[in-house]
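To illustrate the input format used throughout this study, we show a single complete record. The first block contains the structure-token representation of the backbone; no residue identities are included at this stage. The design step must infer an amino acid for every position from geometry alone.
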């Protein structure tokens, strides 16, 4: 009975997401799906397959590459795109730095927030009027304010007080030249829903989503991975722990959690028991008000 209830719930979420994708394809002139190789974007790919196969996707895929990604994720991204036979556009924060449109205070600063600039440049370059992403309302409180079709003005800015109503699942997709929509087909999903769907659909993911041994240091309640971009301080004690990543972002700001979960079923159990949000447990750049998600979103961040 429990399994039937889970499948019914996932079927409803899947049907809603497919409806949103098809509505987007029908109403937008030049949409794009943002694909990083992360678990949420992998779910989006499966939903796109169900929405549009056997035809090709009615949009290209795009990754805004910080240049500080985990090697396992980039390798997986390229393998998955090759399997699908779809078009992947890659635009890099490094190129924005070389152009001078992104200026970091220090060379080793996180490039995560700087993705907003590169994304806006790519939107202008290709004339995209809608960007599909895997953001969910349960990730972070600013995301909970977002509509499924989230309007952005000609400067790429988001105003949480100027969101369009979405009564009865009717979406206002009209935009003027230069404006765009950020569209979130799995906005109503939770982290637990995502993992239950990954298990049901047997969706492949980068290996670092599952338990593996890694050197880490403890800082501010987080397990910071020891890498050339995040070296240990002199006072840090390096530990080798069994960990997994709940989310995979820029190395400079993404932390794993202690875990021995080696399968989707194991992760479902852990997720059902956790009391800490996905980003709250793993993102160093969400720990300060200066780098708050809402402020970044107002400036064009996804």
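Output of the design step:
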């Amino acid at each position: 009975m429990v399994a039937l209830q889970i499948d019914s719930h996932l079927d409803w979420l899947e049907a809603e997401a497919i409806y949103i994708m098809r509505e987007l394809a029908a109403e937008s002139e030049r949409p794009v799906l943002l694909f990083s190789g992360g678990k949420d974007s992998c779910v989006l790919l499966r939903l796109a397959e169900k929405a549009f196969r056997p035809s090709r996707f009615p949009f290209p895929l795009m990754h805004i590459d910080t240049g500080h990604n985990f090697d396992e994720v980039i390798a997986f991204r390229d393998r998955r795109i090759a399997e699908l036979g779809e078009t992947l556009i890659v635009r890099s924060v490094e190129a924005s730095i070389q152009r001078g449109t992104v200026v970091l205070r220090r060379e080793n600063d996180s490039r995560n927030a700087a993705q907003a600039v590169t994304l806006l440049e790519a939107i202008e370059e290709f004339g995209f009027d809608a960007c599909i992403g895997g953001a969910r309302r349960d990730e972070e409180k600013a995301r909970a304010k977002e509509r499924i079709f989230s309007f952005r003005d000609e400067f790429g800015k988001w105003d949480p007080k100027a969101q369009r109503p979405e009564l009865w699942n009717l979406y206002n997709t009209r935009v003027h030249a230069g404006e765009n929509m950020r569209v979130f087909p799995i906005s109503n999903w939770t982290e637990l829903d995502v993992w239950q769907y990954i298990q049901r659909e047997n969706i492949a993911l980068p290996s670092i989503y599952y338990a593996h041994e890694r050197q880490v240091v403890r800082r501010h309640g987080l397990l910071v991975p020891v890498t050339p971009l995040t070296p240990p301080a002199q006072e840090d004690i390096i530990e080798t722990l069994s960990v997994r990543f709940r989310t995979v972002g820029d190395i400079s700001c993404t932390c794993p959690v202690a875990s021995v979960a080696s399968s989707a079923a194991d992760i479902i159990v852990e997720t059902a028991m956790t009391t800490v949000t996905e980003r709250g447990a793993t993102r160093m750049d969400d720990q300060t008000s200066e780098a708050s998600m809402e402020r970044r979103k107002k400036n064009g961040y996804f």
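Structural context for interpreting the output: The helical segments are 2-27, 39-52, 71-84, 93-99, 115-126, 191-201, 264-273, 293-298. Confidence is low (pLDDT under 50) at residues 287-291.
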